[in-house]
Amino acid sequence: MSVSASGRGRHHTLVPLALLAGLLVSGPALATRCESLVRDPARQRSIPVAVTLPEAGAALPVVIWSPGLGGGLAQGRRYAEAWAAAGIATVQIEHPGSDATVYREAAALAKAEDDPAAGQRASAARVRAGASGGQVAARLGDVALVHALLAGGDTLGACITSRIDAANAGIAGHSMGAWVAQIMAGQALPGLMMSNLPPFRAALAISGSALAPAAALPTSAAGIAMPFMLVTGALDGAPENADAAARAANVKTRTALWPHLPAGDKYLLVLGRATHMQFDGSARNLTASIAARLLPATTDFWRANLADDTVAAARLKGFRPAEGEVFELR
């Protein structure tokens, strides 16, 4: 899909740091939100979106957000609100085919079988189908469509987006959505051909995966030249009772991509005992303790790379990890 970028000028209003710190933990102030459907006749898809805008400002930087498998517009909302408080617009996407219907249908399949083992197999197969390569490709198409509409000055369904500057766009996601961010950032995967990628300026992958075998990672990661932030936790996919060795092994798996990223504006943040679902960005799962660490760091990442905010860039580079956390730069 060919994508064009707007050439509108930039003007971004800085938020006082004391005010921003309070907003990131307690919630947004003065943000507008619109939920609607974006229709793609060519692929016969109706794509739910949510647009969160700062109350004031024009030529706003924007982040496109892709949730994890089974996720919808609730996932990522806390991120969108926090970023809006700092002058960053967000467009959340709910992807048909890998949204909440996956787990509803998986549960129905399990219930329909008389044999529990057969029901479990049917349920697991439905979940695997939701995370298939075809569904990843569909998500990539959704993101490309939304960015193209923004760049062309179109509305997103009923949501007015004229204050958004698609030339200053970032891509972010959690879990399966992190795969989207990694690929859009330039990670190459065997059998996946991508051309005319949206011109994102930065990418944030939360709870991502390597996506490629260990031997292929140097080549797979080589194309991620843009500013890139990788976030995970010691219990991101590991049982809560995992011992120290199991937690370390889990972090190593989650961060396998990190050592192979090209140097320059790359950031790794590992948050102590944070779990997989605590990272989904929903009001239900994102706890205050995780939000207090994650929201300021990701906001500074976007401010630095989408709004050319040198103060935010310096603050991010000087991030001090707390006990049990890891923060690295490349």
TrEMBL record:
Keywords: Hydrolase, Lipid degradation, Lipid metabolism
Pfam families, per database record: FSH1 (PF03959)
Domain (Serine hydrolase): residue spans on this chain: 169-248
Domain of life: Bacteria
Gene Ontology annotations of biological process type: lipid catabolic process
MF terms (GO), sorted A to Z: 1-alkyl-2-acetylglycerophosphocholine esterase activity
Name of the protein described by the UniProt record: Putative dienelactone hydrolase
